[in-house]
## 1
Amino acid sequence: MRISGPITVATKPPLPWKNGGGATRTLVVEPEGAELEDFSWRISLAEIHASGSFSAYPGIDRIILLWRGPGMVLRSPAWPEHCLIPGLGPFRFRGEDEVTCELLGTSAADLNLMVRRGGAVGEMRSGSTEIKIAVPCDNLFVLCAAGSVDVLPGNGKRLVLQPECFLNITDPDAEIAVVLSAPTARYVYATLRRLC
């Protein structure tokens, strides 16, 4: 088991989009240092400043979750219109889908999990209660959204995450607990499993 973090989101440099409509911070990518063409999976945080089209990622399964702001409306010929607003869970779609985004305010931020189809599978969920996450999974990612949460990786350690701090656990070998510091604490977690 290898633990990376806690890491603050702000320490990850934002990469501005070519169209000027926003910027993306890559939080975790597998394999480490992989580019968009050759990653197995990737978790990023996007700041969106203008409505527009999403980039296409053929062969990639995507899960998106509103992180900050009033939200956005996602439209695609491949599925019914979807509102990404506070309080709603993650939304899954294919990277090859043609998608446009209409902001419901002046800006928004979203958390993205991108998984290369056939090479890995992933899930992303938001939580506001204490949980225990069972193995097997090859990676566990936890990001604190509000309050603070303690992550207990089963090795006697207690890792404290403050808002906008995250950690990534590679090859966890025991059940992992996420414990809230207060009733208002919230977090997001993702589990990843390699297929080959």
## 2
Amino acid sequence: MMLKWGYGALAILLYSSILHGDVRVYLFPEAEAGKDGLRMEDVAKFEGPVNEVEMIRGAVIEKRIYSDGFLDRSRLHELLREMTGETIHIYGNAVKIILPVSLDGREKKQEDSLVKSGDPVVLAIIKRGIRIEVDGVAVNGGSEGDMITVKVKNRKSLQGVIVNRRLVEARL
């Protein structure tokens, strides 16, 4: 009898976690703020319910929040709590923000290449509305909209289009 109740409770727990998935946030060690500011997808990789993750990924972070050059987990947790009703798990302590102004007060020149060879990227593989994200390394560099090759952990290479500094999308 006790064994049946245990399996039933486990099934209820699994079912509720599917319906109400937690949002997992994996902080990058550093992110570069551009003229237009910083987006959530620039500072972390997100996992969880698709609707929640898509909403969070594109959100803009106000400059006052990272003006000291860091975005720590407590500030990020406060921002995310305002955006989603899901439980939030943050992995990492802080993100070092590289500000667009140099020490002499002049603005940095934007490089032509958004992604360079050897940069770590997230490869989003999209097929028939299903999106799977895997970590990879850029084999060659390019600018936003350029097609590049990304080597993934199983040593296979896939080609995708650069979306931003950390994200490359491959549509199959």
## 3
Amino acid sequence: MANPPTLKYTCKACGTPIRIKVPQQPRTITFPCPHCQTAATVKLPGIEQVRAQMAARAASQAQSTPPAAPAVNSPRPTYVVNTPGNTPAAASPTPPPQPAPGFSPAPPPAPRAFAGSAPTQPWKPVAVHCARLVKIGKLMNKDYPLSEGTVVIGRQDANVPSDISIKDDPYISRRSVSIETMREPSGNCAFRLRVLKTTNPVKLNDMSLVAGSDTFLNFGDIITLGHTKFRLEPGK
């Protein structure tokens, strides 16, 4: 199942770019900026409207811009479309789609090997953290700072270790999910969740995820692994 597109909104108060998931139907939402907490009201187009606008702009550019002649002995350019659970397929060259008015769609994730396919380096947080992954407990919460790089979360197992090991929930799979933290040129961070194993349930907010799927995260998202819940919050 393909991930829904996201739109980029820039906070008018502090200039922080914010990714917003495109809803199925057009609607207006109000939310606080995760950086300066300034409330913003945004009118979002529906997912079909965004896709139609992107397709129309791509078709318009294809008609108005003649294709450049390929250089001698140079391979023809292709664009790779990556769908979770399938081998990336090469598509015919087309101009890049244009964003909906007032927004910039986030780029699709580049093909990468699953974090569980090779041993990962030990997780070493640095002094400046992009975000916190908060484990929600019955009596108290526990913070796991997220810096640039990839961390794997799963049930504690000495033979199959995870960067963040949870020992009090037997319903979490070993090396269940990974979170990749990427710093953008603007200095802000983007977070991508990838499901590695779903022997036990994995959910993002109220949506069940399957192995091999990935999606970008927003502050406030709830990740459920087995009976344990985590919340993504801005770093301190």
## 4
Amino acid sequence: MPSAPTSCHATLVAIAQQGVLLRGESGIGKSTLALGLIDRGHRLVSDDLVEFSLCNQQLIGTVPRQQHALIQIDGIGLFDIARLYGPKAAISSHPIHLVVDLTTEPLAEEPLLTLSATPISILNQTLPAITLNHQHHRITPQLLEMCVKRWHNEKETSVPSYPTHPDPLIRSSVNPSPSCS
């Protein structure tokens, strides 16, 4: 039986106090999206590699020590977020609340945002997941911020979840999200 992953190729950001794990193929734009979120006042936890641990049954994402406050933008280089935006722009760990899978799969008349009907399990902790079509880099930091805030608001207020939501941009998916290994 394979052991649970203790790290993942992903980017972790804290958006409005919600730990959001951005996953997707290499080069899809996770770091660029994170940089835009940092520019909007959100915080970087880790870019490229996120380490996982449990604390009081809460999944925690942590930056590897040597990568603290660093973000790699493809084709441009490595940036020290703390030097560019101040020390509060980067934190070393944060609870993970939501998984966002970025995809470029064509969705032909499908919505931009999909809530996965299959939650993600990391270290035996179940997390909700949404899939965002990032084809042609359609997801902007503002759109991701709005999606996270909407998800959090619906979670907190018990408003009907995405599968029954009337918004045509949102639908449910029965396809499991990719594993984090």
